[in-house]
Please model this.
Amino acid sequence: MLEGKKILIGITGSIAAYKSILLVRLLVKQGAEVKVMMTPAAKEFVSPLVLSTLSRNAVIVDLAAGNEWANHVMLGRWADVCVMAPLSCNTLAKMAHGICDNLLLAVYLSATCPVVIAPAMDEDMWQHPATQKNIALLKEYGNHLIPVNNGELASGLFGEGRMAEPEAIITYLIAHFFRGDELKGKKALVTAGPTYEAIDPVRFIGNHSSGKMGFALAEELYLRGAEVELITGPTQQKTAFAGIRVTRVVSAAEMFAASTAAFPTVDIAVMSAAVADYTPEQAATEKIKKQSGNLALELVPTKDILQHLGSEKKKGQYLVGFALETQNEKENARKKLVSKNADCIVLNSLRDEAAGFGVDTNKITLLDKAGTEMVSELKSKKEIAKDIVSFIVARTHAE
Ligand code: CTP
Model:
């Protein structure tokens, strides 16, 4: 996603400057071209030598070095985005008021690329009305703010003012500037995770689905430019992309209601949730007490979400289902393709130990109505999500 992207990092005098080392390293690792500029004060906190080695470019600090003038105008034109991280209280104030007493500020004032700021300071400085006014000014001027975190500060106190973590800064950059456009203008719905069917107030029927595959799919669709709604059952998974709309549900009935409400306006729907096929006819209102002898639970079928969406599907909507099979795998998956009116089925086999529930890897076969069968290697769920989304992109663009 960051391959060949030109990113200019501005480092100012703040203890959090040590995090810029990791930020530069991660950006370069992801294929970005990185240049670093620093304020003179920043050199007290982190060595230009480390940063020039990691960025593979000379670090620029002064407007003039020896007989050479550093062309600040060109730096701000070279970059696709400029990230001030960490941004100290002092430089933040100077930026807000157009002061230009070092190279970094000259670059900022002449930059034609978007500028992202990741402030770092002590809580009292952060909350001071002067700082908050300066932040408001910078936002008004079109700068993008990555909010500070709450946590331990350089003073030893705990509170607001920590610079966002490098991974979070990269996620922000990708989400705001570097998403693909293959699915731009398209809306996608993804279901993920298990459902819990209540037996009584403390017990439920569930399954081992972790939600990892569904979250990876939602993120991949989002990274290709789609607007994404993710409906998930109970899971520990979180997405770092604030642009993905996440609706958390518990039961199959709740997932059905949320999915059917969202479906009419989406272009792509991917049903990766492991929805319970049966639910207790009636959940007990009080905890069921232990009795001597057996306990029989009356289970009734849940509504099949995929099948319902298949019956409601309009022309131009692409519907993907999952099939988890243990025997006659392809035959059963093909049956599901037809009976649920899906456009594609992602077949998961439980035969492979490293594939399926709970683990980070998966192995799938993609089947569609045209008779296509695409078998993947055992890969990370993120890589599998890329394959599935590429398959969807190719099919939806061909239509
Ligand atoms: N599914 C659904 N709603 C349900 C049950 C399943 O939307 N109530 C969806 C799943 O999200 C998945 C697909 O149906 O995309 C297949 O689920 P699976 O459990 O493999 O198939 P079932 O139709 O439940 O059939 P069986 O359990 O008999 O294999």
